[in-house]
Amino acid sequence: MTRTGTRIHILGIGSIGTLVAHHLQLSSPAQPMSLLVRSPNTFPTSLSSTRGSVKTTSSGYNIESSISSSPSLSDRPIKSLLIATKTTQTSSALEPLIHRLNENSVITLLQNGMGVYQELISNFFQDERQRPHFILGTTPHAVSPSEQKGQIYHHSAVGDGFIKWGLVHDSSKNIGETTLEDWLWDYRSKDAHISSQHLEKLEIPNGRDDLVHLKDTMASLLDMNDLNSQLLPYEDLNHAILLKLVVNAAVNPLTAILGRGQITNGKLKEIPYGINIVDQIVKESSEILLKYLDLESAVPMYLEKFGYENLKKIVYDTIEATRLNTTSMAVDIREKRKTEIDYINGYLVKMGEELGFKTDINRMICDMIKFIEEEQKLSN
Ligand SMILES: CC(C)(CO)C(=O)C(=O)O
Q1: Mean pLDDT calculated for residue range 122-130
Q2: ipTM, 2 decimals?
Q3: Ligand 1 pocket member 156 (CB < 6 A)
Q4: How far is the CA of 142 from the centre of ligand 1 (A)?
Q5: CATH 3.40.50.1820: does it fit domain 8-232?
Q6: Is the CB–ligand 1 distance for residue 322 below 6 Å?
Q7: Where is the signal peptide (predicted)?
Q8: For position 187, what pLDDT does the model report?
Q9: Would you say the CB of residue 111 lies under 6 angstroms from ligand 1?
Q10: I need a surface site. Which of 48, 69, 113, 192 has the fewest CB within 10 A?
Q11: Residue ranges of domains in the chain
Q12: With a threshold of 0.90, does the pTM exceed it?
């Protein structure tokens, strides 16, 4: 489907970034897209993904430099930027591009963990008049890199997995009294399914070019049917991100600590000592989140969702579905890289502390991962 030409730039062409770039290009071939990479000269001009026994390839990307020291770094404004970097690298990766972003731009974040949005606001966009639109996303699609740059393995079976997106509320961007969420849903019930065709029919109010970029970006994101891409009201999206946070808090650091990158997720269930620790992390995380949601005055249905038994089921099901995977954090430890612990268990600790709540288990998990990180740094 042809859009009005809002070019989407993608920053962070790791496994998830490659998956999304590839599917955006396959589902919207006329969509202009740029991949922002450190070494444009050696980056392939096509991407491919192998799902089951089927390999698909996409091409037609502009390959641009993402680093400030490069003479080929363009100065043209970026209308839409999708960020799929590691949480730990987001601020430094974004810095050379900041002068190309403004209040008409759209930034889409698709990452594990939480806290990057707040970090970017505080580092770069404190003035809300110059703040871009922000879309946040979450996905359980399991992807791993192949030995070849630009090629990935997509482990989620066809039909499995989803990507959920939501628009961060920003009252300075309202259309008169109307919030952008109301505009996007066109006054329908918030349970209504929003398709790209629906978005394309929305009228852009005079003087609001920023909404052209927002609408185009969302329509392209929603066209990725193979990834089961959905737009949710922000409150629902926030709950989906919190559920994923608990999965990552319970699974990722344990596989990293207990296996140092050598065990797959399934081992946590096969060996009962593993699941005992999983349970303790889930229990404490559930208590923190229930307290948080109570303060946010969420409806009882959601409170049930974050109860210990339901969270345990979600975590166990994810371990089962990804039993042959190695978590991203275990791989980081194996490769002696900095992990995303501050944005996962560290985020839960911060949340708990702000609520005056006990966070001993998540804090101990953070300390263990940080111990390994330090020890690896010293022995390097
Ligand atoms: C779902 C899970 C735990 C799959 O490994 C993951 O998100 C990760 O590795 O970061």
Answers
A1: 95
A2: 0.96
A3: no
A4: 7
A5: no
A6: yes
A7: none
A8: 81
A9: no
A10: 69
A11: 8-232, 235-375
A12: yes
Domain 235-375 part of CATH 1.10.8.190:
no
Q: Is 253 in the pocket of ligand 1 (CB under 6 A)?
A: no
Nearest atom, ligand 1, residue 142 CA: 4
